[in-house]
């Protein structure tokens, strides 16, 4: 074995490199001097409450919005400020916008949606069917191949959206609030799918925007945003160590700028507990059944709700609550 010290391989350039980005919508500042990067194969969560600039940042990275004056953005080696380079990089990027099934065509079936995106992204004809079947099997959607996308549950729509995003083997995936409105079981299955796809392709980079902080703990790095700025950007364990906290919710609060203390703390009135209704039932259902073709949405359900009672239906997407 040689005694010579071998030089380490040079670090690969970042997949995403943003410096001093700014973006406005009229007088509203969406991004304020944002510097942000993503390494090849890295998974980064951009977290923060609604309206802090997460979606704007992702849409700029995806090339869905044009850069405004000030700041630079490079994605997959392309200068996103130049239209020609932005268009050349776009086929290597997968972007799932916010909203359940927002990228899907509701009137097309599951299989037709996948075929449409395969053709759109130039997947060779000979490879389309095999790739569609592979993705449908991986997401347990194969039995629903002929069902219209508009008739899928929320969790199933997000799984299909992920399949459509992955059909052309992109180098970068951008997910904007992908599990908002999805039940806990479907949310767990969705993230397991993402983990499985990343395990198949270690070079696949992922950026997610979320306001659900507990989801961010599974990522390599977390960028905390507030008021258009990045407050902190580090691995989850480092963020906890720097703030002396035990969860990302508390760490996020610790990084927020201090607000000026008010002279007088407002009195907080206790929240009254509503009494359980004890009157006669105002809604009585006995043996309700509802089908949509061969699909049974409600199967012999009986329920009684009394006046003054607050009654909740709890269950996963697609189990019949809305029906």
Describe it:
With 323 residues, the chain is α/β, with parallel strands linked by helices. The chain contains nine helices and twelve strands. Strands 6-7-8-3-9-10 form a six-stranded mixed sheet, with helices on both faces. The model has no long low-confidence stretch (mean pLDDT 85).
Determine Rg (CA atoms, Å): 24 Å
Low-confidence spans: none
Which structural category fits the helices and strands? alpha/beta
| Count of DSSP H/I helices | 9
Arithmetic mean of pLDDT: 85
Provide keyphrases for this structure.
single chain, 323 residues, alpha/beta, six-stranded mixed β-sheet, 9 helices, 12 strands, 26% strand
Short overview:
The chain is an alpha/beta fold and 323 residues long. The chain is built from 9 helices and 12 strands. Helix content is 28%, strand content 26%.
